[in-house]
Amino acid sequence: MTTQKINTLENGMKTTLPMLVTNVLRGVTQNGAPYLTISFQDNTGSIEGKWWDVKPFDEANVKQGKIGMVKVDAILYKGALQLRVHNIDFSESYNVNDFVLGSQYEPEFLKKEIEGFKNMIENSVYRSIVDKCFDFYGEDFYLYPAATKNHHDFVGGLATHVYGMCLLAVDLCKLYPILDLDLLLAGVLLHDMGKIEEYSAPILSEYTPQGKLLGHISIMQAKVYEVTCELGVRDTEEAMLLRHLILSHHGQYEYGSPVLPLVKEAEILNFIDNIDARMNMFDKIYKDLEEGTFAPRAFPLENRTFYKGKGVK
Amino acid sequence: MTTQKINTLENGMKTTLPMLVTNVLRGVTQNGAPYLTISFQDNTGSIEGKWWDVKPFDEANVKQGKIGMVKVDAILYKGALQLRVHNIDFSESYNVNDFVLGSQYEPEFLKKEIEGFKNMIENSVYRSIVDKCFDFYGEDFYLYPAATKNHHDFVGGLATHVYGMCLLAVDLCKLYPILDLDLLLAGVLLHDMGKIEEYSAPILSEYTPQGKLLGHISIMQAKVYEVTCELGVRDTEEAMLLRHLILSHHGQYEYGSPVLPLVKEAEILNFIDNIDARMNMFDKIYKDLEEGTFAPRAFPLENRTFYKGKGVK
Amino acid sequence: MTTQKINTLENGMKTTLPMLVTNVLRGVTQNGAPYLTISFQDNTGSIEGKWWDVKPFDEANVKQGKIGMVKVDAILYKGALQLRVHNIDFSESYNVNDFVLGSQYEPEFLKKEIEGFKNMIENSVYRSIVDKCFDFYGEDFYLYPAATKNHHDFVGGLATHVYGMCLLAVDLCKLYPILDLDLLLAGVLLHDMGKIEEYSAPILSEYTPQGKLLGHISIMQAKVYEVTCELGVRDTEEAMLLRHLILSHHGQYEYGSPVLPLVKEAEILNFIDNIDARMNMFDKIYKDLEEGTFAPRAFPLENRTFYKGKGVK
Amino acid sequence: MTTQKINTLENGMKTTLPMLVTNVLRGVTQNGAPYLTISFQDNTGSIEGKWWDVKPFDEANVKQGKIGMVKVDAILYKGALQLRVHNIDFSESYNVNDFVLGSQYEPEFLKKEIEGFKNMIENSVYRSIVDKCFDFYGEDFYLYPAATKNHHDFVGGLATHVYGMCLLAVDLCKLYPILDLDLLLAGVLLHDMGKIEEYSAPILSEYTPQGKLLGHISIMQAKVYEVTCELGVRDTEEAMLLRHLILSHHGQYEYGSPVLPLVKEAEILNFIDNIDARMNMFDKIYKDLEEGTFAPRAFPLENRTFYKGKGVK
Amino acid sequence: MTTQKINTLENGMKTTLPMLVTNVLRGVTQNGAPYLTISFQDNTGSIEGKWWDVKPFDEANVKQGKIGMVKVDAILYKGALQLRVHNIDFSESYNVNDFVLGSQYEPEFLKKEIEGFKNMIENSVYRSIVDKCFDFYGEDFYLYPAATKNHHDFVGGLATHVYGMCLLAVDLCKLYPILDLDLLLAGVLLHDMGKIEEYSAPILSEYTPQGKLLGHISIMQAKVYEVTCELGVRDTEEAMLLRHLILSHHGQYEYGSPVLPLVKEAEILNFIDNIDARMNMFDKIYKDLEEGTFAPRAFPLENRTFYKGKGVK
Amino acid sequence: MTTQKINTLENGMKTTLPMLVTNVLRGVTQNGAPYLTISFQDNTGSIEGKWWDVKPFDEANVKQGKIGMVKVDAILYKGALQLRVHNIDFSESYNVNDFVLGSQYEPEFLKKEIEGFKNMIENSVYRSIVDKCFDFYGEDFYLYPAATKNHHDFVGGLATHVYGMCLLAVDLCKLYPILDLDLLLAGVLLHDMGKIEEYSAPILSEYTPQGKLLGHISIMQAKVYEVTCELGVRDTEEAMLLRHLILSHHGQYEYGSPVLPLVKEAEILNFIDNIDARMNMFDKIYKDLEEGTFAPRAFPLENRTFYKGKGVK
């Protein structure tokens, strides 16, 4: 028997399926009865549910991060499916990795590919800094998302995003030989690594206090500085350029970069970052969009509403 | 005997060389003597000269667009070479094409390559529109610059820029298969074609009145509309999408796009345009820049001052 | 017996009246019962209604654009009247024109007046372009609104707005003889004509895909270009100036004009457009506003809240 | 014998003409010789002159505001006429009014017309405030300019500008009867009156300290408040509305209005002010502009460069 | 028996307590039953209540500004306490001052202190203007709030804010002797006095029409002008400087200052105003904030979300 | 015999005085003769000189940073004194410290005072971080300026600025006890320390490459991170808060802070920094300003032109 998944639910279905609780809000109806608004997720998508007349025991039991077998009715509400929850059975135990969205790539594939891009770096200063940073963050690099929402917001999102950017970097260096592949690759590999400290966890990720107070850009720049002190390359041109690429990769002051790109590879790093992130957002926007219609406004894309051509690709 | 060229002049040289006059300003010294400030150019660069105590006949004779044999002293003034002009002999006739900067590519190469990209377009509506527009502008497409200054500001600059963008477009469509190569290529090929009407000429290019009052974006959008009427494809989805790409390719209202990119290929067209233009500007900025120093502020690059790393590529 | 109209409904009334359905949203109460939120309209105004416990047959039957006899209770809810719907009878047929807001002017009057303004144009190039565009859009010019909301958002709104602007244009040309009446009138008559393609219909108007992807400014500029090709006046000064007026009439880049006004009549066209639109909005804002109070914030008037003086006009 | 005027000087002329000195800058040549750069003006225009090798006595004698008979050579320098000064004879006395630009209207005409507009105000509160303010500033109202530069920057400019705005106000109230003519006229008549304290004098006008520290908007609002206290109408609706019109007439915070227009007449006052000022600037821009060319950038018109059509009005 | 206060209510409590009604919204449930949403306040805080199934007599009786004995159940709703209202008894009469938030300082203390700061002003012009303004507004100066919300939004808030600013002003003049204490103190004492006319009342304060149409900055500047006319010091340097300080104290055009600070004391007045207001907001934000957490976004602090350190002060 | 100083030079003087060369520009006159434009400085001010007809030997000898005895004529040129240089004798040697502007405080005084503020810090984590950073930069902290121009742009400027801010910080913590003096003092002491790496030297200071590519904010944040690693306090709340204060002390993204102030002490640090810097600029602006006049526009003060009151302090 195949397990029911969120992405195959339909209006009117009465069914039972295992789901991860990603958020819980408690409410009280006008009649004073408590109810829960629960956000659920599995590896095919996410959906919201209401549990009316929830018993005190159950109310206390439902918590963010738990996985249970949920008995539901699926109904259409304001044009979107919603669940009416009747019961959640938390007795069985599940592997959380089966309930999260993941990369289109296997972790082993990403590790091998990124190892390959590291090996392309010929300059030994860049290479040693990159290696030491990868050692420091270890496995987390392949687990963390590249954002808490918007783009690459899934387990392994960070590595997936960096992989896509490495491909682009290599292509651009072929088209425009003036670019220094070593510096650009080192920048691509490290630019977002501070997110491992900016976010709380690979799954159900939130901003940590230091994420908000310092930001991944400054966290990583300081880490690279400390690494260069340890490696005895603190005052090299390479250390300075790599720190500059990390600091400037958001491209504008109002996006949190304290300096603007002032070397050509810094400018291109910002373009590569943007293109790969936006293509990932387009994947999501266009996936289920009907031809000849406009998608809902996309906040991270300057609130624009994208169109899918009719009868053309 | 080899001809003296602008890029080999040195402080203290007294020499004679053929140059194109690109600008003339008339002045009067405190003693009431007339003099000329002349901008010269050949196919290796440009330089400014002063002609003190110029005779009335000579003063009247020196005009923008003329080419003559110029007798000069080269002197260093405020850190840059300047010419003291003693005489200009306009008696011989020259081919203006020998006195302008050109593309790094031969015209024939560009034509063949761009023909190849046109052939990649499989959709017959896009293809027919593209062909008709290329027919209309003919040879001029391979003569006009892509800008009056800043990037690709040379004879053949438009075609050179479009060629660079086509290469990028094909690469990106491979990395991100969600993109429609047909639409993107059609957009790349036509997006700046209106510049042939926006600028006055391939050489010594200025904005025409309609260039200022309408702009190349609106000129080309109207041209494509008219072409689609002629071809009987006015109301096709393809016609609408292609006009949209042309209108939105500057990416922001304040850069003269009346609509923002609302289809994925429009968004990417704006990125491709930007990257290829900026790489061309980097070529010029980094070419003669000393290692470990900053270039002068670059106005079209948000007034930033770019740095060339010391001892690294 | 006179028919009940929306603008005479009062709190507590139980009545029956014919209304046009302009929007329908489906909802489900906490008890799982379906209900409808319906926007109604007649030629005196618009109002929202709730149909609780709607039957499946009725739920399916209620659709945007239909007109029916509606049985309701009017009740005050959050300071505004709302309808409790008990039944809608769609058996009778109505003329949709009796259920939409219209111009204060009769269509025949508007046609005659606008014909008169066309006749004021002495320059034959402007005149022939204007005539050909009016021929192309025909009756629609007198049916479409000038906006989907905010100002002149009713059947005939476009012609009403253009009429008001023509009056202003003639006055201004008398006060400031430096202005060219021919160009200004031609600009006024054509500036918003592209809205006939930007909007879906005279009634229940929405943006079409090409409305969003191209915009009425670019649609009309292209149309005028094509018309000038047909008329053989493509390269005249008049054609260029008229296209410039259309392109620049929003006055600023961020309002969708790809070029700023660069001729005096373009500058004045933008002022005339603004004044006539704002006076129409003031008519609506001040109509029912109590003396000594402020109106709700008006989004299209920079979110300001206008005041009506006490005891003064 | 007719007196030579500035607007009829030509390259090469050696002549003598009476002119007003509007500015003097002292300089020293490389050889240590003193010279003067003098700005001259008469009632036909203004021009700059250089007095090389000026004698100490003459150097001390030349001062802003003096009028003398000047012996000059007119020469073309950088595309504009310039004077070589040989001598200035200050022995004769002149009437300064013959050396300043003036209104196209006679003072008596302006007084009669503005008196007429005052008489149109039927509301006695507005009328009494307006009268008391006109009494207070008296003759100065007909002498001061409306700006130190840009528009209506001549003797009588303030009254000329107010007259033009009154004409427009009356026209608009006819086209849009919702407007209150009394309030609008009172606002037009008083809105810029504070400039009489903001500027130093009708001629050679500069900002006074209170002009810079307070501004004409706040100066006049306070004056009206004080006047309403004297008249015993301090707490009337009319007093409040009129003060609001004065405060908000620049239309935007960044133009120095501490409140935005919040009554319909305030909004229209801002439009009328703008239109009349811009038409005056167009008069100057288009007067000597060659057909088919663009004027120099106009700073107060958002730095735009206006075009004059070829072969059309 | 001690009276129950709002700040000691807890989830599940059934109790009776006297409260001030600060706002009433009328609603109708889906079943057509009327209910009230009431905002209550006492001198310890404020809370919202719902009165379901309210009787018509009670519904009519509950009004903003009344004080009654309220019978309630306190329940937790969406993470905040809310009241279920069962009855309100308005028969007894209360002193409104017992139901409003007040200053941490006694009125007598504030009067004595502010009197002391007035006495520090040695310049007789500043002193006489300050005295006359204090005479005019009298007791209201010690009753009005400094804002309707955000900071010092309580009875006596204006005087409390001014007192805090005087302390800062004296300190800064000691650290930076270049500052003129007389001018700065006069500016501090008068800068916000216009709020007494901008707001409707010390309690339940709203903007008056003149508050919106003129603003406290312009109201006070005009008042000072009128006072200087009465005192015969209209044209003194002191009058001009003090009016400038009032006009410029918001520091930026977009915050409603028609001129920017152009004297050093004006610049410092803006800083002092800002610091004291922000420290008051911090008091409120940090008071109940848990260590190691972020407060909700604070709109008047540029929408930032402030953090309270863990284990440090 | 007392040495001539720059601040006592007068028009017409012929004299000899020792000065530091801070800048040299080489030029050529119209006759081809070389000349030098030299910027001079001593401990009383700075002045520009021209050396006409300079000999090749002298031309080569004059260099930035050298000190010599200069023979000059002082002449008035365009309203400012300028030097005509006749000779420079570099044979004697001077102490550069006698030719630079310095603090109003003795170095020993500043050291003692700042030591005292360090001792006020009771929290041992803050204290140890501060001490280690002061150890690292050592004497340079008391030599570097706080800016290359605008404010505290002299030897010892950094320490002078920090001293002024410490005084303010202590005062504010007394007035507003909610502030944490330990955190605020630590922030004040370290906030600008990165300028020691951002600038090239205490005298004739310029931006270093890492100053431009990283900025003092990021340089110092990384340094503090590295110090906390060494001290074993990397993960303390104190380390995070102190790094946050450094990062956010410019207060806005566009001023180079990658995060906005999110703790109360960070907000106040930004205010203190601003006030002390602006008071230093006011000292310079008001020092020689004539009463009743406006100073030239001050770029770092938002381009405002400050006024000095007449007859008041």
Automatic annotation (TrEMBL), chains A, B, C, D, E, F:
Gene3D superfamilies in alphabetical order: Hypothetical protein af1432
UniProt KW keywords: Exonuclease, Hydrolase, Nuclease
GO BP annotations, alphabetical order: rRNA 3'-end processing
HD domain sequence ranges: 159-277
SUPFAM superfamilies in the record: HD-domain/PDEase-like
Molecular function per GO: exonuclease activity
UniProt keyword annotation of ATP-binding present: no
Name of this protein: 3'-5' exonuclease
Lineage: Bacteria, Bacillati, Bacillota, Erysipelotrichia, Erysipelotrichales
